[in-house]
Amino acid sequence: MTDAVRDVVVVGAGGMGRAWMDVVQARDGVRPSAVVDLDVSAARRAATERGWDVPVFSDVAAALREAPADLLLNVTVPEAHRAVSDAALRAGVPVLSEKPVTPTVADAMWLSALSVSRGVLLATSQSRRHSSGISAFRDAVRDLGGAGQLETQFFQNPRFGGFRDEMPSPLLVDMAIHQFDQARFLLGSEPVSVYCEEFSPSWSWYRGAAAAQAIFRFSDGSRFGYAGSWCADGLTTSWNGSWRASAPDGSATWDGETAVRVQGQDGPERDVPMGEGSEGLDAALTEFLTALDGGEAPSGEIRSNIWSLAMVEAAGESAATGSRVDLDAVFARAGAAALAEAQATGETAIIDQLREWAGGAPR
After folding, report:
1. Which of 100, 125, 143, 345 is at 20 to 30 A from 285, Cα to Cα?
2. 172, 316 Cβ separation under 8 angstroms
3. Hey, what's the torsion of the CAs at 280, 283, 285, 290, to 10 degrees?
4. What is the per-residue pLDDT across 289-335, written as a single tens digit (0 to 9) for each?
5. What CATH number was assigned to the domain covering residues 6-128+280-307?
6. Domain Gfo/Idh/MocA-like oxidoreductase N-terminal spans what residues (predicted)?
7. Which residues contact 287 (CB under 8 A, 6 or more apart)?
8. Hey, what CATH class is 131-271 in?
């Protein structure tokens, strides 16, 4: 990693924004140069609490004009993700964004085309890929021959308040992307289709559907089953979910934290030791900085991460229609919508990139 210190603009001073600010504060090699939030007093308060003597702004474009920026952390609400990332990419500033990278696949394809055409990195922080537990579980599953059937249960009961309580599909749109992305990481394959139902238990405090069940088919023939709820009081799972994989040479489980167990054919059960290394947000930032230094593209690079977002969109469409949804159809519609927008605005470079993908998933 380079010895140079990188200037970081943090956009969003809410709960997650403050968590990211703490990650920046704890690291060598990065320093804050500005904090941006529509509520300037919140931005100033968050900066002051950390002893940061940096300017605060209500507008990201102004921040990028007036403050040095080697990278931008986009920790705004999902509806603002595209506009913030778009402004940074056009200014030549790499972006590490909170999930989802945008609310829709069409918006993500637009941003992906912009990122490629400008040669500026945009990645999503899928921080739940980064833990000793999931790495040990993935390695154990691979040693057993790879999962043919993968299942997770996610049952939690957060009382967030705010925008999540009002969302039409809070679990699928705001949380399930983590487990969907983890499934891609664990299977090493991409999704082909999904059937999903979402619903609201009678005791739910959310306006929208806070529970869902889905089954995905992947390109290697494996299946991934998801059952989740955000209004499950009692016996809650880890925020990573509780996992089981069935493979040719046995089965493995992961409690979502540090307990991975395997059992081969007719063999004894055994615990799998955990590895070491950074986890969560810090690991996502490390991966991003490594890419900026010329290393491998981060696992959340937008052209890869768009598959996780497409899983969410396809699951939502399936729940709405009551039918199985093919991912190819999701990408085709999204690509057509993004291309139509680019043609309407005359953005030649984006048009060319979207045409190269021919309506399919970015590669």
Report:
1. 143
2. yes
3. -160
4. 999 999 999 999 999 999 999 999 999 999 999 999 999 999 999 99
5. 3.40.50.720
6. 8-123
7. 130, 298, 299, 300
8. alpha beta
For residue 273, what is the DSSP state? Answer: P
Q: Phi-psi category of 254—alpha, beta or left, where left has phi over 0 and alpha has psi -120 to 50? A: beta
pLDDT of residue 2: 55
Q: Using alpha carbons only, what angle is made at residue 149 by residues 147 and 155, rounded to the nearest 5 degrees?
A: 110
Cα–Cα dist 35/196, whole Å = 39
The one-letter amino acid at 26: A
How many Å apart are CA 129 and CA 188, to the nearest integer?
Answer: 12
The radius of gyration of the chain from alpha carbons, rounded to an integer in Å, stands at 21
pLDDT tens digits for 33-63?
999 999 999 999 999 999 999 999 999 999 9
Cα separation, 288 vs 213, whole angstroms: 32
Overall pTM surpassing 0.90 (yes/no)? yes
Token pair of 54 as six digits: 């940096």
Q: How far apart are CA 9 and CA 133, in angstroms?
A: 31
